[in-house]
Amino acid sequence: MRILFVSNYFPPEVNAPATRLYEHAIQWVKDGHQVEVLTSVPNFPEGEVYDGYTNAFMREEVEGIEVTRVPMYITPNEGTIKRTLSYISFMLSAWWYGRRRRAKPDVVVATSPQFFAVIGGYLIARREDVPYVMEVRDLWPESVVAVGAMERNAIIRFFERIERALYEKADHVVVVTNAFKRSIQEKGIAGEKISVVKNGADLDAWSEPLDEDRLAALRDRHGLRDRFVISYIGTVGMAHRVDVMLEAARMCDDPEVVFVVVGTGAEWDGLNAQQDELQLDNVRLVGKVPKEEVPYFLEMTDASLVHLKASPLFKTVIPSKIFEAMVTRTPIILGVEGEAQEIVEEADAGICVPPEDAGAILDAVMQLKSNPKLYAQLASNGYSHVHQYYDREKLAGRYAAL
Predict the structure, then answer these.
(1) Cβ-count burial of 161 within 10 angstroms (0-12 exposed, 13-18 middle, 19+ buried)?
(2) What 3-state DSSP class applies to 305?
(3) What is the pTM of this model?
(4) What would the pLDDT profile of 53-94 be if each residue is shown by its tens digit?
(5) Partners of 39 in the beta sheet?
(6) How far apart (Å, rounded) are the C-alpha atoms in residues 112 and 134?
(7) Residue 383, strand partner residues
(8) Which of 85, 95, 157, 330 could form a disulfide with 325 if both were Cys (CB 3.0 to 4.6 A apart)?
């Protein structure tokens, strides 16, 4: 097949949507398909164009994937109005420049987030008169209300009507959780039109050996040698309440324990301001790192914190961080209820705590630190579980079959 995939995000951006698409696309190319990704110039989340790129129409090839980048209005990942304008600009740009592709696709797939990308994908598919697949990684606009960015007002209700219309018009809908499927079915969409393809991990990529000198240098640079390290690695956004780590760190009186945050996002400046005020010597705010450095931080991590705000909507979410922790034999401290909790409990790969409960997070940290037998068992269980059920190669094959 010739697959055209429309997405706001693609490497060198390192967020979950970019990683999922990249790993699927590489596997599709290996399996003999032609894949073109229609995306933006890399700028997430700072709203600054990455080195080596310009905010203009351009083409490149990434490991056999044809990548077409289109210009858009660029803004940091903060502020509802500016971000919405940015997403709309990508939708319009993708639709306009999409006419300059090299060949007609057999199928168009578009992914949400962001929501306007799926509108752009639908318009392209109809112009080309080919099947359209809508991938849902986030229940938008419900998530906008859940994180507190907007009240449920007339604007939200308007987009809810567009959301339902897109579900109805799509030839197929792919979601990443069973809960998402149930939610969309409750909107009147037939279950046989919806398939679940969950997130997973590229097992081969995570098995590559690390440079021991580089690993040692990073440990020394951040003062992590001979420490028990709790890491949050990912987007520091409105949905994540990463500041709960600072509260746990403030309560911790064990000098061997260090809390590390790797990433950036809309709440990064607020997190820095909080640390400037508290001056906690057991906290390291590392910020954004290159994608190739993430495995090094996971290697230095003794327990991986995966956390979201306490919201009914987030019970439907499965953060991809849990699979990266499993494949690196890192026990999970999970502050997410619902389907993610079911996976971690089924795998017996970590300790589940209530969201936004710093005391419970600290208790889990001390339990893992003080019980080497439990630690080793959780690490081994997660590694086995991700290999059995969440191999990205197998998931990509299922997706292509759809």
Answers:
(1) exposed
(2) strand
(3) 0.81
(4) 999 999 999 999 999 999 999 988 666 778 888 889 999 999
(5) 69
(6) 8
(7) none
(8) 330
Using an 8 Å Cβ cutoff, are 322 and 340 in contact?
yes
- Give the CA diameter of the chain: 63
CA-CA distance, 83 to 91, in Å (whole number)?
13
Which parts of 56-173 fold into alpha helices (H)? 80-97, 115-128, 142-146, 154-169
In contact, 344 and 167? CB cutoff 8 Å: no
Radius of gyration of the chain (CA): 21
Per-residue pLDDT reduced to its tens digit, 224-242: 999 999 999 998 988 899 9
**CB-based contact 222:286 (threshold 8 Å):** yes
Exposure letters 18-42 (e unless 16+ CB within 10 A, then b): bbbbbbbbbbbbeeebbbbbbbbbb
Q: What stretches of 228-338 adopt beta strand conformation (E)?
A: 228-233, 257-262, 283-287, 303-307, 332-335
Please give the single-letter amino acid code of residue 244. Answer: V
Q: Which residues fall within 8 angstroms of residue 319, CB to CB, at 6 or more apart?
A: 16, 234, 306, 308, 336, 340
Sheet order of strands, 172-175 included:
58-62, 65-70, 34-40, 2-6, 107-112, 132-136, 172-175, 194-196
